[in-house]
Amino acid sequence: MSKISKADEELRKILSEKRIKSDADRRVGSEVFDKKTLETLYTLANHGYIHILNGAISTGKEANVFKGLDENGNFVAVKIYRITTSDFKKMQNYIQGDPRFKVRTTNKRQIVNAWVNKEFRNLKRAREHGVRVPRPIVAKNNILVMEFIGDEEGNPASIMKDAYISDPDKLLTTLVNYVKILYNDAKLVHGDLSNYNILIKDDEPVIIDISQGVVLDHPFSLELLNRDILNLTLAFKKLGVHISEDEIKSEIMDS
Is 203 part of the annotated catalytic residue set? Predict the structure, then answer.
């Protein structure tokens, strides 16, 4: 696509590939920044969503999250799903059981694009019902731009696993209430809630990575809710808070 070859100056502003040093980093860079992803980044840059893309906040098998700046100098989080390494079978299972999506394809890029749209819609629905998650800004193809969770200097918030928790009981109460709101009001189950997918900002939790979140009539919803509850009990047991799975489930479902 000729647009990319003519956009070298803009791409140099928004991409951090020049930072890639080792062979392994170059391989990862080529997996993340394939041609279609570069085209999408260029489009998002043209619309002011991304002006500068800095280093990675987190890296995973399926996606990398980068810290960026929009055209107004505000920090944003830019989540880029990799087409080459995503677990398409898992994605299909979660998407095809969701009545909001009618994806009838084995095309990997289309599945990833639907997955990104799913995360955008889950974040939006959660926020509309008062659950603290990053504000979704825009989703296009395999890229999701959302609110950056961190301080004014651009330092990202710590995941719960690594954060200092000043009041574990209060934190658990807040999180159980969020799961309760998701279940009863937003009609969603997170599906992968753990101390790896919760950020701590100003001693308050922010739930992240809700791409696999499912609606209640999804065939996996109860199984995933039980897994979320188990993960919470295990995480807080390590913090000295002893609560049973049945107690949390009763609080969530008996409302």
Answer: no
Query: Catalytic: which of 192, 203, 228, 254?
Result: 192
pLDDT in tens, 128-171: 999 999 999 999 999 999 999 999 999 999 999 999 999 999 99
Tokens in use for 25? 């980093």
CATH classification number, 158-253, choose in 1.10.510.10, 3.30.300.20, 1.20.1510.10, 3.20.20.370 = 1.10.510.10
Q: Per-domain residue ranges for the chain? A: 2-147, 158-253
The residue type of 124 is: K
209 flagged as catalytic: yes
Which of 209, 217, 246, 254 is flagged as catalytic?
209
The structure tokens 């489930």 sit at 249
pLDDT, one tens digit per residue, over 87-119 is 767 777 778 777 777 766 678 888 888 899 999
Nearest CA-CA partner of 33 in 52, 6, 14: 14
In CATH, what class is 2-147? alpha beta
Sign of CA dihedral 91, 93, 96, 100: negative
Cβ distance 136 to 197 under 8 Å? no
Confidence of residue 50 (pLDDT cuts 50, 70, 90): very high
Q: Is-above-0.90 flag for pTM?
A: no
Look at residue 27 and tell me whether its pLDDT is greater than 50. no
